[in-house]
């Protein structure tokens, strides 16, 4: 485990234990070069602490790049609570976790992720000021999946414009892997735009619920969707679905979805390009949720947040143009934009220190 931490380039990794409540958590702050780190808390039954540590280190680093490409004055962080939320999630545990978040002062803001919800953030906020993604009842924006899906749709429109010279998905067949909150809302946007939709999910009830609203949506076996004759493949469930074995079977021209960490390893981006597939990096595509919870820190304004979401279209166009001009993958182009902004802004700012200033309001700045 020590080798994993030592090989990472994170500013701070905190192991959190509270035996009374059963809390076992890890908070990772990757970078505060642009401002305080922001990232959700994932509650998941990891098989080991090493697996949890690897996940939180990888996810927190991605948050740094996501915030930078989104033009936010925020850094990257993430937290994981180890265990089955259906069995272990209690008020004492969440409040104990909140006290650890508070101990980091404004170096880290937490929010929802897999296994945690706005109601949980309300409980955590009873112990910490540095919580966002709360319920509307408590002044928050509520569920972030709506704007996340809208951002994915904006990115998909940019990919369509680059590939087919039109930002519309009308008449295109889009395969959505995952009929959860983001996948379901993405289907709504695509349906309104005139796309033909194929959806797959391991939970049949989620597919049935979506098809009850849109009977023209086709259901598919999750194991077969990726190899279907599609124009766009949209991973909106688990990560790691694109690997050395699945990419050769992929028939879509575009991969653009809301799932985190879609590539099994970095080399898959090149493999996709060589296979003739345009892949937009997931951390750019799914930045809508981050934009929403970041906006909430300053007092949520839906119109302002949606306007920032729309800029995902412009950012994706810029990434695709850079990839074409420099003959690199869109993934590398996105990394370059993020790293360039971090380098430019971090020189005058330096590291973010607790109570250095009031948390900044995310600005409408293109990366």
From TrEMBL:
Residues 142-350 form the Glutamate/phenylalanine/leucine/valine/L-tryptophan dehydrogenase C-terminal domain. CDD domains: NAD_bind_Leu_Phe_Val_DH. Keywords: NAD, Oxidoreductase. Transmembrane segments: none annotated. Residues 344-367 are annotated as: Disordered. It holds the Pfam family ELFV_dehydrog. Belongs to the Glu/Leu/Phe/Val dehydrogenases family. This is Glu/Leu/Phe/Val dehydrogenase. It comes from Prauserella endophytica.
């Amino acid at each position: 485990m020590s080798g994993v931490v030592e090989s990472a380039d994170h500013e701070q990794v905190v192991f959190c234990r509270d035996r009374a409540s059963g809390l076992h958590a890890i908070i990772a702050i990757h970078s505060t070069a642009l401002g305080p780190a922001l990232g959700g808390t994932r509650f998941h039954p990891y098989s080991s602490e090493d697996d949890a540590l690897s996940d939180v280190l990888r996810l927190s680093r991605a948050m740094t790049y996501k915030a930078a490409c989104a033009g936010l004055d925020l850094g990257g962080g993430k937290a994981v609570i180890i265990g089955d939320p259906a069995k272990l999630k209690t008020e004492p545990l969440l409040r104990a976790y909140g006290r650890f978040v508070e101990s980091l002062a404004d170096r880290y803001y937490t929010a929802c992720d897999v296994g945690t919800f706005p109601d949980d953030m309300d409980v955590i906020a009873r112990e910490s000021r540095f919580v966002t993604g709360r319920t509307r009842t408590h002044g928050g924006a509520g569920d972030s999946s709506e704007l996340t899906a809208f951002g994915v749709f904006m990115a998909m429109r940019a990919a369509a414009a680059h590939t087919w010279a039109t930002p519309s998905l009308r008449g295109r067949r889009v395969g959505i892997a995952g009929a959860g909150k983001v996948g379901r809302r993405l289907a709504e946007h695509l349906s309104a735009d005139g796309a033909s939709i194929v959806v797959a999910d391991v939970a049949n009830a989620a597919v049935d619920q979506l098809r009850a609203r849109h009977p023209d949506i086709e259901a598919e076996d999750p194991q077969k969707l990726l190899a279907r004759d599609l124009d766009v493949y949209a991973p909106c469930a688990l990560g790691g679905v694109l690997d050395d074995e699945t990419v050769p079977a992929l028939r879509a021209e575009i991969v653009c979805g809301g799932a985190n960490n879609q590539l099994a390893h970095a080399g898959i981006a090149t493999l996709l390009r060589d296979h003739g597939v345009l892949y937009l990096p997931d951390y750019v595509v799914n930045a809508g949720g981050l934009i929403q919870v970041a906006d909430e820190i300053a007092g949520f304004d839906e119109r302002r947040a949606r306007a920032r979401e729309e800029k995902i279209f412009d950012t994706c166009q810029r990434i695709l143009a850079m990839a074409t001009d420099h003959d690199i993958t869109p993934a590398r182009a996105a990394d370059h934009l993020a790293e360039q902004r971090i380098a430019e802004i971090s020189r005058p700012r330096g590291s973010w220190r607790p109570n250095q200033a009031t948390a900044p309001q995310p600005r409408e700045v293109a990366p």
